[in-house]
Design a protein that fits this description.
alpha+beta, 17 helices, 8 strands, 8% strand, globular
């Protein structure tokens, strides 16, 4: 399960409980023009990106345990040339690609779902024996991710890694980014595509500013929701500049409080039930969801107490909102669903907060406050 599954569940609940609708935006491809432009590419990264270091054996949610790890073709070809006993063991650890099912080559997990090349100290034997540059591509990249645009690329760190999550949560103030010029990262794009990207980048910047405002979480969520709706309308007007219906009445969605709708017991019950119905990889995720569902009335009643106690670290929720907006908002280029990307950020952050309140209650109010790194890792992984 992933954050998209959480959001899919929320969409189903939302249509039943709120009476609020989601936009079905047009396809932006219709705007594309034929004149191509090629320019020096940029790479944009969060300022904390360069500080990331794998913590190896100290990691409590090891990415080499419980994950099927694919082996790319270049690494596979190199592994065929590795001599000696280690080379033989390396090759025996890899299941070949299956042309019939389309499954790529991957490391065979052992009975405990560990990569067979993870030693007793939870360190990678490929790295120790052959060097970091000889690891499979996915092992080298994780938890980094990349998004390509018409004239550049954005890189980020995924929340599923606890070392990355710690960096993400530790930031204070407005999000900061490092932007550098680089060859080989720019795709061939059209002027229309670049202009559309710039519109969305500008919208995302406005959302970043809202996410970092000094305001209560619910007020912030409601403003983000209303802004997202306005941005969707602006984006749709850009693609299809039809005359506006001056007689259109104000809808319930225009005046709705996103927070009031989300934090209803009926909404949260249905949401958690749907999440429990998805495929679950780890029992600790099921335990969290089941425990939270059983204590929903108390969670809702005590949430303000939690937020008051958490006030000194509420920037961590701002950072989560910023993370989800940075990672997912620009995907609206593919489906034109601007509003839905903001909803994804809101729902994902609110679910983390819901489970934070549950953990605080379950472990006692003396439990160390701070968005739970383990909890977020479980959420992002499942």
């Amino acid at each position: 399960m992933c954050f998209h599954c959480i959001y899919a569940a929320y969409l189903s609940v939302k249509s039943c409980h709120f009476g609020l609708s989601f936009s079905t935006a047009p396809v932006s491809a219709i705007m594309r023009q034929t004149r191509e432009v090629i320019r020096m590419g940029y790479i944009r990264r969060p300022a904390y990106y360069k500080a990331f270091r794998c913590i190896g054996s100290d990691c409590t949610e090891n990415c080499c345990i419980g994950w099927e790890i694919d082996v790319d073709e270049d690494s596979l070809a190199y592994y065929e040339t590795v001599p000696g006993d280690f080379g033989e063991r390396l090759r025996a650890s890899i299941a070949p690609a299956d042309a019939q099912t389309g499954e790529p080559a991957h490391f065979r997990l052992d009975a405990e779902e560990r990569c067979p090349l993870l030693n007793d100290c939870n360190l990678c034997e490929v790295l120790l024996t052959l060097g970091e540059d000889k690891m499979a591509q996915i092992c080298t990249d994780h938890p980094r991710y990349y998004e390509w645009f018409s004239d550049g690329r954005e890189d980020g760190l995924g929340l599923c890694c606890e070392a990355a999550a710690e960096l993400i949560l530790a930031q204070t103030g407005a999000p900061a980014f490092d932007v550098t010029e680089a060859d080989g990262v720019s795709e061939t794009g059209t002027e229309a595509e670049t202009e559309l990207e710039n519109v969305l980048f500008s919208m995302r910047d406005a959302l970043f500013r809202l996410a970092c405002e000094d305001a209560p979480f619910d007020d912030k969520a409601d403003r983000l929701y209303r802004t997202a709706k306005a941005q969707q309308e602006q984006y749709d007007d850009l693609l299809f500049p039809f005359p506006e219906d001056e007689d259109a009445d104000e809808t319930d969605e225009d005046t709705a409080s996103w927070s009031q709708a989300f934090w209803r017991e009926s909404t949260l019950t249905s949401l958690l039930e749907l999440l429990l119905g998805f495929e679950i990889n780890k029992d600790d995720w099921r335990t969290l969801l089941t425990g939270a569902k059983a204590r929903l009335p108390e969670i809702i009643a005590r949430r303000n107490d939690f937020l008051q106690a958490y006030q000194g670290k509420r920037h961590e929720y701002d950072n989560l909102l910023t993370y989800f907006l940075y990672r997912h908002f620009m995907k609206a280029l593919g489906d034109d669903a601007v509003q839905d990307k903001v909803q994804l950020a809101l729902v994902s952050t609110a679910v983390i907060q819901l489970l934070d309140v549950y953990e605080w209650l379950a472990k006692g109010r003396g439990h160390a406050l701070g968005a739970d790194l383990h909890l977020q890792g479980v959420l992002a992984r499942d």
